[in-house]
Amino acid sequence: MQHFDLDTLATFLAIVDTGSFTQAGERVGKSQAAVSTAMARLEDRLGVRLLNRTARTVSLTPAGDLLCGRARELLEIERRIVEELGGLGERRQVRLGMPDDYLGLFGTCVMEKFSTRHRDISVQVVCEFSQDLEQLVARGDIDLAIVTRRDGDRQGELLKREKQIWCASVHARPETAAELPLALFPENCRARPHILRALETAHRPWRIVWVSSHMQSVQSAVMMGFGVTALPQSALTFEHRVLTEADGLPPLPDLELALMTAPGISLAGRKLAAFLRAEFGEGAVAAPRAVEAGIG
């Protein structure tokens, strides 16, 4: 007897919810081709057509409509089993990785909200660059990670799109320099190419005056007025002055933040992954208000 693959059902529901094979792939961390192959195999196994596909639309057949309801029930049962089993046994540890510029968005919520709800689970946060976190997850050294995707990469499950914002100190105007002074993370930072490419495209001269692997160091350089940087919107504070095209800074593309899980992730890890999807997967979280006013 063959059994349903819950990952395939999750892919099917992603198509239903997004109305697009491409967007479904982004949600579940698969290429469009992989999504199409999974659906073809599912339809072949069931012997019925589940989706009506045209060049622009995707809709459910009667069989697809029936499967949609049942698939949601199965995935809900899985979620509840994980929830119930996760409440048994001794206190467990889950290792969650993320770049340190996402600590304000994800770290605080996890350490306060998740840990309060699940006192039997101890969360250890590991801060590294995305490429290093991917290797740690692949080896099973950490249980899950939130990473910045490379351009065109579909690795992991799309969790959230985050705006990049130019910012400077409220006490200085480094953006008025002929060559824009930049405070950046090193070359292995995946946001850095977006920043430099935008400046090159806009023909804005620049020079790098500060490089550090640590968020606090980059923040200090900005706060002391040494340079301008670009940060995830969620990392801005009242000490930052937002810079826009009116200040001569080009627009920046959004970053895609993906959730990656280790092979054989524990029940406690799956519970944390489900929490992250519920908290961040369906919409942006309001960022702290940043100061936009000029210097008096």
UniProtKB/TrEMBL annotation:
GO terms for molecular function: DNA binding; DNA-binding transcription factor activity. Gene3D superfamilies: Periplasmic binding protein-like II (3.40.190.10), Winged helix-like DNA-binding domain superfamily/Winged helix DNA-binding domain (1.10.10.10). Residues 4-61 form the HTH lysR-type domain. It comes from the Bacteria. The keyword DNA repair does not apply. Keywords: DNA-binding, Transcription, Transcription regulation. Transmembrane segments: none annotated. Belongs to the LysR transcriptional regulatory family. This is HTH lysR-type domain-containing protein.
